[in-house]
Write a structure and sequence with these properties.
- The complex is a heterodimer of chains A (166) and B (285).
- Chain A has 166 residues and is mainly alpha-helical.
- Chain A has one domain.
- Chain A is built from 2 helices and no strands.
- In chain A, helix 1 packs across helix 2.
- Chain A is rod-shaped, with a radius of gyration of 62 Å.
- Chain B is mainly α and 285 residues long.
- Chain B has one domain.
- Chain B has 8 helices and 2 strands; from the N terminus they run ββαααααααα.
- In chain B, strands 1-2 form a two-stranded antiparallel sheet.
- The chains are: A mainly alpha (166), B mainly alpha (285).
- Chains A and B meet through helix 1 of A and strand 2, helix 1, helix 2, helix 3 and helix 4 of B.
């Protein structure tokens, strides 16, 4: 019950054609199409990712430009503020110096006035002391009592002369 | 020793239709290939893919690459599933013979069926490219007396495709059968002789063990020799052991690397290559 070794069996051929077509259908349905679907999906996903990346890059560049503009603005503002501050400081320092100078002048004037006053006082005191001393010395030298009031006038005149000579 | 080489066994009749081994095994092949497709093609993911899916994608991409390389990048994608189905069916049909069942491709009807499908596709594409009149006129070129030769050359395409595939698989099967037959005969003759006395077995076993223990280049031949000696000894004690074709272990497996594995895959590949090239050139005319 063997078919001969080399022969064309029509029924077998027909069966095999059907098998091949069925296999073709099954192969396509269960392997080829699912895999191709997945490959297409992955391709789409990759494309989408690239698109997203491009978009984010554009966005980032816009943000960067805006940031740079802001930075420039801020810098300008800062230098403006700095200049203002410097101007104010200058004005203020000048004012302070002026005030200090005025104060110094005032203090100097006052000091000079004080000195003059003190000198005057000191001179008066010395006048008195010298007068008394001269009187004592004169009394001792002359060894006689003279009218104190007359001598006082003489001494004052003398001291006046001394004060002017100095 | 008798070897008989037969076509497929006729298992029964369904009305007038003989159901042969070819048909039944083809269904098994169909089931195997479809099962493989379902296993490879189920639960596919876009990301984070499994090894199974990587294999499936690689197979499909190789198939695409194969068809694109032979037929051009565009215009022939509809033939890719046919080529894939043909290749898978052919490879599994060729290799199923390794499991000791009848290979459907060792029946010319199988290849004839495939070649017929390819022939129909070739002719359809020729008719599409040239028109019916152009096709008929082409058969008469360069002069009308060439018409018979032209018709023969048209028909030669599927015939040669079918016969090439069939011939290779059949010859592999025949050679395998002959080798098995020869080795069985050699086995019974060798061990009948060696088993006649205990001495020969002992001597061979001693030599074999000696070389095995030396652990040099001769270790494996020594092992084989020792095994033969051991078996010869067994045969001399129990003569029925000589009937077991011991020599069939090993050698046929090595030969089957070429006759079954290499030949089986390369014939499927050639059949698919010819299919793509013939269909492509039919469209160009």
């Amino acid at each position: 019950m063997f078919q001969s070794l080399v022969t064309l069996a029509p029924w077998t051929t027909i069966f095999q054609i059907c098998n091949l077509l069925l296999q073709l259908f099954l192969f396509k349905k269960f392997l080829y199409k699912p895999v191709m679907n997945i490959l297409a999906k992955r391709q789409a996903a990759a494309d989408a990712q690239i698109r997203d990346a491009k978009q984010s890059r554009e966005e980032a560049e816009a943000i960067k430009a805006e940031y740079q503009e802001n930075m420039a603005q801020a810098k300008a503002q800062a230098s403006q503020i700095l200049a203002n501050a410097q101007q104010t400081a200058n004005a203020r320092s000048e004012e302070i110096v002026r005030a200090a100078q005025a104060q110094a002048v005032e203090i100097k004037n006052k000091a000079e006035a004080d000195i003059a006053q003190e000198r005057k006082q000191a001179v008066n005191q010395i006048k008195d002391e010298i007068g008394d001393m001269a009187l004592e010395i004169a009394a001792k030298v002359v060894e006689r009592e003279i009218n104190s009031a007359d001598h006082q006038a003489l001494i004052n005149e003398f001291i006046e002369n001394v004060g002017e000579a100095r | 020793m008798d070897i008989s080489i037969n076509g497929p066994k006729i298992l029964g009749y369904l009305g007038p239709i003989p159901i042969t081994q070819t048909i039944v095994i083809s269904w098994v092949v169909l089931a195997i290939v479809t099962g493989l497709c379902i296993w490879l093609g189920h639960n596919l993911q876009v990301e984070n893919i499994s090894k199974r899916q990587a294999l499936a994608e690689m197979a499909v991409e190789k198939l695409n690459g194969f068809v694109h390389a032979n037929m051009g990048e565009t215009g022939f994608d509809s033939y890719i599933p046919l080529v894939g189905a043909l290749f898978a069916t052919s490879v599994v049909s060729n290799l199923i013979g390794l499991f000791g069942v009848f290979s459907p491709t060792a029946d010319l009807s199988t290849e004839a069926a495939w070649a017929l499908v390819v022939f129909i596709l070739i002719t359809r594409n020729k008719l599409k490219a040239q028109g019916i009149l152009g096709y008929l006129k082409g058969l008469l070129s360069p002069i009308f007396v060439m018409a018979p030769l032209n018709v023969i050359s048209e028909l030669a395409t599927p015939v040669s495709m079918a016969c090439r595939h069939f011939g290779n698989i059949l010859s592999g099967m025949v050679i395998t059968l002959l080798i098995y037959g020869a080795l069985t005969a050699a086995s019974s003759a060798l061990f009948g002789l060696l088993g006649s006395t205990v001495v020969s077995g002992l001597v061979l076993l001693a030599i074999g063990v000696f070389f095995w223990m030396k652990k040099g280049k001769l270790r494996i031949p020594g092992g084989v020799l020792g095994f033969i000696g051991l078996w010869a000894l067994l045969c001399s004690i129990q003569p029925i052991a000589a009937a077991i074709p011991v020599l069939n272990f090993g050698l046929p497996a090595i030969l089957s690397l070429y006759f079954d594995w290499f030949s089986g895959v390369i014939q499927a590949f050639i059949f698919c290559t010819l299919t793509t090239i013939f269909i492509k050139s039919a469209c160009e005319a």
